[in-house]
Prior knowledge:
Oligomer: single chain
Strand content: 15-25%
Helix content: 10-25%
Largest sheet: 5 strands, mixed
Distance between the termini: 65 Å
Shape: globular
Amino acid sequence: xxxxxxxxxxxxxxxxxxxxxxxxxxxxxQGAVTTGLMxxxxxxxxxxxxxxxxxxxxxxxFQKGWTPRGSVKIIPNxxxxxxMKFDFEETPDDLEASWLGFLASPDHNRKDWPFVKWLMExxxxxxxxxxxxxxxxxxxxxxxxxxxxxxxxxxxxDGLKTLLQAGLxxxxxxxxxxNHISGVGALDKAxxxxxxxxxxxxxxxxxxxxxxxVCVPYEFARAYMRDKRSQGFYxxxxxxxxxxxxxxxxxxxxxxxxxxxxTFIFATPKSNMFHATKKAANKTxxxxxxxxxxxxxxxxxxxxxxxxxxxAVFTTLEPTSEPDPDPDPNPET
Length: 333
């Protein structure tokens, strides 16, 4: 705990006056937004397994003879839940001889001091939510931790960008292929209105009629509204009448803090985007231990995100490699 500035400014002693929790101010932290757009799944599994089934064409003109047509294909699809945790330790005795002494207590049990409750509610819970949103849910790339070394928040799980890229580059055998919509380009605040309309026009006709969140980095959702206003068709008494709806469609634009700094779009029905958790209550229900005069706070849980059917996902993110447009039906062995 670094309270050096407090001691330098207010002295190395506690003098009870009018200081209290209301005088401890904290910067706003980003809450979890991305998972609110997903279908929640509670599970005891660490891999949530799904099967994607499809059927080929059936319809044909009538004839008396038996001419069977069509076949069913089922491929695997899974959402991997990653085990994540936090370990935090502190020595609250440092507070007693300072202006912050009101967070201490005469109780021998340091884990019961007001400081510990304040720490969990004001800092630990909000900080975990922020790091999941800004580092993991959108741009996370899973990396197994090195024994004895704490890894970074962006390493704890695969985020949306990683999952979209994997689906774009899939060969369709172990998971479906995510749809790439071309002709949109990297998002630009000056043209985002037209880019989003072009994106929606590129969605397959079946899904164009389905309500979907068209997800973009948060800054482009605001730019979309401004660009929409600038088109001149919305001369209304107040900006509040300019909604995030995409004209003449059941879709709407949603900005995600988790994709800040990116320039791509993606969309899929909420029923197709999952947030799977195991021991989810542990994200806010912490274990507190005390050894001698130190306090230890910890928790661990599992979570992962993913798509139920990749073929129902649409994005402007570019594939890393183009598939062979005309594969050889009889390759040499």
